[in-house]
Amino acid sequence: MDLLARFATDLVGNLSLGMSVALSLKNVGLCFLGCLIGTLVGVLPGVGPIATITMLLPITFGLDPIGALIMLAGIYYGAQYGGSTTAILVNIPGEATSVVTTLDGHQMAKQGRAGVALGIAAIGSFFAGCVATLIIAALAAPLTAMALLFGPADYFSLMVLGLMFAVVLARGSVPKAIAVILVGILLSTVGTDLESGEERLTFGWTEISDGLDVAVIAMGMFGFAEILRNLESTQTRDVIHAAIGNLLPNRRDMRQSAAPIVRGTLIGSVLGLLPGNGAVLGPFASYTVEKKVAADPSRFGRGAIEGVAGPESANNAGAQTAFIPLLTLGIPPNAVMALMVGAMTIHGIVPGPQIMTKQPQLFWGMIASMWIGNLMLLIINLPLIGLWVRLLKVPYRLMFPSIVLLCCIGIYSVNNSPIEVVMTAGFGLFGYALVKFGFEPAPMLLGFVLGRLMEEKLRQALVISRGTFMTFIDRPLSGVLLALALALVVVAILPSIRQSREVVFKEAD
Amino acid sequence: MTSQSARNGLVRSPFDLAGGLFLLAIAALGFAGGFNLPFGTLSGIGSGLLPRVVATLVAAFGFLLILQALVFEGDQLEKWHLRGPVFVLGAVLIFAVFIRGSTLTLGGFGGLPLLASVKVPPLGLIVAGPLAVIFSSFADKDTRLLEVVVFGVVMTLICGLLFKELLNLPIPFDPAGLIPGPVYHAYVGVKSGIGQFFASIKNLIVR
Fold this sequence. Notes:
Radius of gyration of chain B: 26 Å
Order of helices and strands of chain B: HEEHHEEHHH
Distance between the termini of chain B: 61 Å
Helix content of chain A: over 70%
Oligomer: heterodimer
Distance between the termini of chain A: 50 Å
Number of domains of chain A: 1
Number of strands of chain A: 2
Number of helices of chain A: 21
Radius of gyration of chain A: 22 Å
Number of strands of chain B: 4
Strand order of the largest sheet of chain A: 1-2
Strand order of the largest sheet of chain B: 1-2
């Protein structure tokens, strides 16, 4: 009881410290600007959070680290919410997690209830965001304490586990998913070796002796390659012509959505914690659950409001709890968080357990700003929906050249380097080829970012153990993590699971 | 992408075969780029260990996919389109060349003789922007030239105002002074107007 009381006072104290940082006029302004610009770019069809964050990364360069992180987080939520808007209004999901929203959201829009769909998405996301913020605040301290028990071997095994999760959650064939992660790790070794100073895989090309920039890879594979795929898709874009209708859901809508929002939030929060992009499962799981518990499942796919409320809440909750592994352990659980590592490094912040102890203002300020960001989204988006609709009516033949221009300006500005623009084009082609050969680009980006960390931890662990691999099995924590990873591989290969995996992703197609 | 019965002789899944060959090519690059690096010992891993081990694994998965393609029925290769990649990625290259100027060379590296060299002056966003928009628009066959030219110029001006003036990115806008006088004055007018507007907001916030 005493412990609980201390925990509660700590939590309140920490959150109020965070609020005092996040509520400064400057930081609120940055949060607002981030949410607004993030939504504006995220609304563009085919531009997901990864491309948006990369594109807008340079605008945070002039800021202090706290302001920059708050703005980046705002951009991230904005991009997420913008993706949902596009999913509902145009039936094009900006990213995997808003795929489910297209099912019922777009149907609602066709029935003249786009406003309600967007409204309930915003309200559900807001609720989910509030809960997720509390979860992060509550789990941060204990998890950080736990992180200090992790030795290099344990870190290495945890990352192996995370990558195995990414394999299980990837679509398509298991060997291809593992292979694409390995390709990511291989790319991470490009550049000067930090220990020996030798150049690796650079082929004498000095421009890449510092290693490949995560922004370059992300922009090429998620910005340009996505445009190429959209240009080829035969799927017609139908911006809804029906009226947007009321924005605020009526009492009946609210009653129908309340339980799905709560369930979705719980599902999304838990899945978001998993390493290896568990967040992507949240909306799918929530949709399946709602369909199961519904009195009349046949309404789903025809504009059931529960099919928007639940998955959207799960989406936002997962998007936020995904910060936990990054902030406490320093391990990014998915491609977006991988990009956040790059962004934080640029601002001189090393993600990991030491942030909370050494820079409490930054840590708690960012967490508090998450809540403010969610409130902003609610405030910004409801009145601006008309603007997004008009933006989406711009024909794609004009839209995509603008996206190309924005991407070019963004990637040029990261280091003011034309060479990096050229390399981005190269990765655009690489990403296009990957997709054509049936490989998913997101696990590759995760492998790329984790690759460097893994090599570092592997080396440290082997130095400590004087060169015996047994250390990975002997250490209890590492051993358990590796056993879990092995179990995951087995699970992924078992035919019955493969089938249900295909069913889960089938609704996406 | 449809499953088809074996009409390709030995290969039952061209899709997986292509994926496997792709992996082999990447693994070969990995080996080539790291072949002379020291392997080290287990207690002191050299810089060459990880690249070579990972490249070996990539190659192994490449062979696995190829084997799979010969044994199991699978999908046909997806159709590749040239139009999109050529114009979209071409536009990106054009942007890279014109934004700060560069020297384009034909040959001159890898032991090849220098065949030709063109020097592109730094022309900034005002040239690179519209060129990138116009060139990339050809990726869509429904493009309309006049429309996209006007649109490209307008978009570039908006981006200039947004990124250079408002967000202070150090992107070269018009280093060669190409914008004609009256247009430039109008642009500066708008720019300073917006600048003042935001400065006053900033003052409000700072105070």
